[in-house]
């Protein structure tokens, strides 16, 4: 059986309350009801896609014996926050995690779907038996580059990474082999055409997400005999650009697949979906890591007492999507609990709007190509709470002749 | 109004749309729903817009992907689209 052996999330050292951000930007508080979010993570100038990825994965890698670590034979970073057109984020991550030089190293881009696509390909490779006992590490990592031009999307954008360790001892989620459905087509619903510019067509993007949920589940049901949206899955974990969209998606699917009334739909949402939204509601959209943040949320918030089947949906703009499933066993709760994700999210330093805009001026430069640049992490510690990441922390110290430099703090 | 869309089909689509908008945006005065405005001009956020489209298409028995409604510029064109889709 192949699946997720371990999972961790790094969501930065700082965060801002959405009411604070709405006040600062003059946004309409009535919109908070459908956004269904409370806070979002805020990046610091010494954080980038590389440090987020390493800081998410390091606790997983450190918990392995040297022998086990050497069996990580595939490392993939999935990101829409590339730091170079050619050199991958994964190359830096491979170095700073101290992985084997016999490890296959890759970066994947498919907007918010990329991590799930790579999880599935990695699971297929692990199942091939070509390297018995091997592990694969897929890390979804991104940063926020939007400011007020993005309006309500600024409030929904997160910052951080999710690290997914795959192998043949799936303590977190055993992936159902062959149980998946796909739906993809070309559209320009959202994109990052420049290092500081995210473009988004809200209707095009949200409508595509919902169509893909319907169609990828239909493809899943074609492949999996007897699959039923309302009864096959004990829990649902959906890509979460903002929690309100997940709620709308669940409602749409329940209308399409059942004849139950609004109250029953609401009760089903509270039981099967809501626990997955607790972390996304205080982190924001982690792009392709979002579905794994939601998976961590449902396991931490509502620990399973017996093996439970989870339906997962990943959607990436552009667009590509997949509905898949797996089984979470009772041991997942204590295993994931070792990562203390809830505690670390609560420990993020709360920044005010003025502080946020000062940080944003620096962090928006994160992906802008520069030959040389110096970043002094010591200048920014007042904006961080180290309790949000008690172990060693990788920080960006600058760029020298296009080579990014990092150090441990 | 598009001449190729029958008056009856259009009236039915308009009525269903006005009902759906009224249900999702109950505090909106009906007089504000004019043909040259987009749903977002009425104060409908992205989730409200999803609910309005899903409600009206269900009522009219229209089975089209939501993405068919992504680029409709205003309520007049939305009514035309609904009337045509219902007839199809």
From TrEMBL, chain A:
Record has Endoplasmic reticulum as a keyword: no
Residue span, Hydroxymethylglutaryl-coenzyme A synthase N-terminal domain: 73-168
Top-level taxon of the source organism: Bacteria
Domain called Hydroxymethylglutaryl-coenzyme A synthase C-terminal: residue spans: 265-363
Keyword entries, A-Z: Transferase
Pfam families found in the cross-reference section: HMG_CoA_synt_C, HMG_CoA_synt_N
Similarity comment: family membership: Belongs to the thiolase-like superfamily. HMG-CoA synthase family.
Name of the featured protein: Hydroxymethylglutaryl-CoA synthase
Automatic annotation (TrEMBL), chain B:
Signal sequence region: none
PROSITE patterns in UniProt: CARRIER
The name this protein goes by in its record: Carrier domain-containing protein
Statement: the UniProt record of this protein carries the keyword Metal-binding: no
Matching SUPFAM superfamilies: ACP-like
Cross-referenced InterPro entries: ACP-like_sf, PKS_PP-bd, PP-bd_ACP
Organism expressing this protein natively: Kitasatospora cystarginea
Pfam (any one): PP-binding
């Amino acid at each position: 059986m192949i699946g997720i052996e371990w999972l961790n999330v790094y969501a930065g050292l700082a965060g801002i309350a959405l009411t604070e951000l709405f006040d600062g930007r003059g946004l309409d508080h009535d919109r908070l009801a459908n956004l269904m979010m409370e806070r979002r993570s805020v990046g610091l100038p010494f954080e980038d896609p590389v440090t987020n990825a390493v800081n998410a994965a390091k606790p997983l890698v450190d918990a392995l014996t040297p022998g086990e670590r050497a069996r990580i034979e595939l490392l993939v970073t999935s990101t829409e926050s590339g730091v170079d057109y050619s050199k991958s984020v994964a190359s830096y991550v491979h170095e700073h995690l101290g992985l084997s030089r016999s490890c296959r190293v890759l970066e994947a881009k498919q907007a918010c779907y990329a991590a799930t696509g790579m999880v599935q390909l990695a699971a297929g490779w692990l199942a091939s038996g070509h390297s018995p006992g091997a592990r694969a590490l897929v890390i979804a990592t991104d940063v926020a580059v939007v400011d007020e031009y993005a309006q309500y999307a600024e409030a929904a954008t997160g910052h951080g990474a999710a690290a997914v360790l795959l192998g043949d001892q799936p303590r977190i989620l055993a992936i159902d082999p062959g149980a998946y459905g796909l739906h993809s087509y070309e559209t320009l619903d959202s994109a990052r055409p420049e290092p500081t510019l995210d473009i988004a067509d809200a209707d095009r993007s949200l409508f595509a997400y919902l169509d893909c949920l319907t169609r990828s589940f239909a493809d899943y049901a074609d492949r999996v005999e007897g699959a039923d949206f309302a009864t096959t899955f004990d829990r649902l974990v959906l890509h979460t650009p903002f929690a309100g969209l997940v709620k709308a998606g669940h409602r749409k699917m329940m209308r399409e697949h059942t004849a139950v009334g609004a109250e029953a739909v609401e009760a089903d949402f509270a039981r099967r979906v809501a626990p997955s939204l607790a972390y996304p509601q205080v982190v924001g959209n982690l792009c392709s890591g979002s579905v794994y943040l939601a998976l961590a949320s449902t396991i931490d918030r509502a620990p399973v007492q017996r093996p439970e089947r989870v339906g997962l949906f990943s959607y990436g703009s552009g667009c590509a999507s997949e509905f898949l499933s797996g089984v979470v066993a009772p041991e997942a709760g204590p295993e994931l609990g070792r990562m203390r994700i809830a505690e670390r999210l609560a420990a993020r330093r709360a920044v005010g709007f003025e502080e946020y805009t000062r940080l944003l001026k620096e962090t928006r430069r994160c992906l802008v190509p520069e030959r040389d640049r110096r970043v002094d992490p010591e200048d920014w510690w007042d904006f961080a709470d180290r309790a949000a990441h008690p172990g060693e922390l990788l920080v960006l110290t600058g760029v020298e002749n296009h080579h990014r430099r990092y150090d441990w703090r | 109004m598009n001449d190729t869309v029958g008056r009856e089909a259009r009236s039915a689509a308009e009525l269903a749309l006005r009902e759906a908008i009224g249900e999702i945006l109950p505090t909106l005065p009906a007089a504000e729903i004019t043909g040259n405005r987009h749903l977002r001009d009425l104060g409908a956020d992205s989730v409200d817009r999803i609910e309005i489209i899903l409600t009206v298409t269900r009522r009219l028995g229209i089975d089209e992907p939501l993405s068919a409604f992504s680029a409709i510029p205003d309520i007049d064109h939305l009514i035309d689209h609904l009337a045509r889709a219902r007839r199809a």
